[in-house]
Specification:
The complex is a heterodimer. Helix content of chain A is about 0%, strand content about 45%. Chain A is mainly beta. The model of chain A has no long low-confidence stretch (mean pLDDT about 90). Chain B is an all-beta fold. In chain B, about 0% of the residues lie in helices and about 55% in strands. The mean pLDDT of chain B is about 90. Classes of the chains: A mainly beta, B mainly beta. Chains A and B meet through strand 4 of A and strand 5 and strand 10 of B.
C-alpha cells in the first residue's frame, strides 16, 4: 500500500473549519484514501474514504486532488471533541487488506 | 451502527499466565482483526480471520493464537504472557464486499507484570 505523509500536528479554534492535509504521491489507481481518527485511549474511528471524487458525510468532507497525489480532510465546524490523532491511510480493496496506520496528525481544537 | 465490543478495557496479568481477550461484533461481518498499538510503532496486525474457523497470520503473530468458533466472536490468546506483550489491543471487523471498511472496538489495555 502507498505511503502517506502528514504534518505532525496542527490546531484550530472551536467552531472554525479544520483542514487536515495528506500527501500520497505514490498512490496507484486501485487504492483508496481512508481517514480514521483516534481519540485518546479509544479505538480508531472510521471517518470517510474516497477514490477520486470528493466525498462528504455527516462527519467530514474529503477533497482529493485531480492527480490523486494529495487530499484534505475537512471538519467544517470543529468542536473540542474533535481533538484527536487523525490518520490518512491509502489501501487497496480486496479481501483482508490490512490497515497500516502511520503516525497521523494530532489536531488540537482550542476553545 | 456497527458495534464492536471487547471483553475488558483494562487487564492486569502476571508473566506466564494464559490470557484471553474476547471481541464480539454485531454486524454479521465476515472479517475480524486483532491489532496491537504501541507508542511510536502505530498499529500492528497480529492475526485476522475471514471466516469461521479460518485464521491468517498478520505481521507479528509470535506469542499469540486466535480462535473463531462463531462468526461474531474472535478471541486472542496469549499462551504465556510476557512483559513485552504489555500493550493496547484493538479488535476490528469488516464486511464484504468491496471496500471493507474496518470498525474498531474500544481497545483493551493489557499490563503484564
Amino acid at each position: 500500500d502507498a505511503k502517506t505523509t502528514q504534518p505532525t500536528s496542527m490546531d484550530c479554534a472551536e467552531g472554525r473549519a479544520a483542514n487536515l492535509p495528506c500527501n500520497h504521491s505514490t498512490i496507484s489507481g486501485n487504492e483508496y484514501v481512508y481517514w480514521y481518527r483516534q481519540i485518546h485511549s479509544q479505538g480508531p474511528q472510521y471517518i470517510i474514504h474516497g477514490l477520486k471524487n470528493n466525498e462528504t458525510n455527516e462527519m467530514a468532507s474529503l477533497i482529493i486532488t485531480e492527480d490523486r497525489k494529495s487530499s484534505t480532510l475537512i471538519l467544517p465546524h470543529a468542536t473540542l471533541r474533535d481533538t484527536a490523532v487523525y490518520y490518512c491511510i491509502v489501501r487497496r480493496t480486496g479481501a483482508n487488506s490490512k490497515l497500516t496506520f502511520g503516525k497521523g496528525i494530532t489536531l488540537s481544537v482550542r476553545p | 451502527d456497527v458495534k464492536v465490543t471487547q471483553s475488558s478495557r483494562y487487564l492486569v496479568k502476571r508473566t506466564g499466565e494464559k490470557v484471553f481477550l474476547e471481541c464480539v461484533q454485531d454486524m454479521d461481518h465476515e472479517n475480524m482483526f486483532w491489532y496491537r498499538q504501541d507508542p511510536g510503532l502505530g498499529l500492528r496486525l497480529i492475526y485476522f480471520s475471514y471466516d469461521v474457523k479460518m485464521k491468517e497470520k498478520g505481521d507479528i503473530p509470535e506469542g499469540y493464537s486466535v480462535s473463531r468458533e462463531k462468526k461474531e466472536r474472535f478471541s486472542l490468546i496469549l499462551e504465556s504472557a510476557s512483559t513485552n506483550q504489555t500493550s493496547m489491543y484493538l479488535c476490528a471487523s469488516s464486511g464484504t464486499p468491496v471496500l471493507e471498511t474496518q470498525y474498531f472496538g474500544p481497545g483493551t489495555r493489557l499490563l503484564v507484570l
